[in-house]
Amino acid sequence: MKGKAVGAFFGKMRGTSKSPPRVNLYEVLWSWVGGFTGIGAVAYLNYNVLSGMNLLILIGSLGASAVLIFGAIRSPLAQPRNFVGGHLVSAVIGVMCYQLLGSHLWLAAAFAVATATAVMHLTKTLHPPGGATALIAVIGDKNIHNLGYFYVLTPIASGALILLIIALIVNNIPKSRKYPEFWF
User: Fold this and answer.
1) N or C terminus of the chain: which is more exposed, having fewer CB within 10 Å?
2) Is-contact 78 69, C-beta < 8 A?
3) CA-CA distance, 169 to 147, in Å (whole number)?
4) pTM value?
5) For position 1, what pLDDT does the model report?
């Protein structure tokens, strides 16, 4: 009996379908243009405008978001509600977890990512990079920790809004692309 259960468990890991086809070069090009323009704008502002103010808007989770909002524009995970909402929810949870559990970073990190995932599900804002946003609030350096809940506004909300504006422009230039699929 145990052997069958183990076999069934591992059998689930075989997959049930084939990999989707490769996207055409036109889509690849527009994904590249969007990713370059979006992250380029955020990075330029981060390093050339905000650096003297001790503020930042460029964090790793925005790079993952750029892949979704420029490379998978039809995915529900890439839509504005999920993109912006997922980051905001996760940022609040990440800061809260650091403030409550920061003396045990392993626990704060695990609690932040798991709770952010659950709350994103419950609020229909699931956006995988949101997990990284919550994690960064916990494991970030003292500059991140010193922001407290200001972390939600900058870098998170400001960086996400800049990327969203660029996604709305770049993703709608080609006739074959349309973004977003939905707002709410």
Assistant:
1) N
2) yes
3) 31
4) 0.92
5) 60
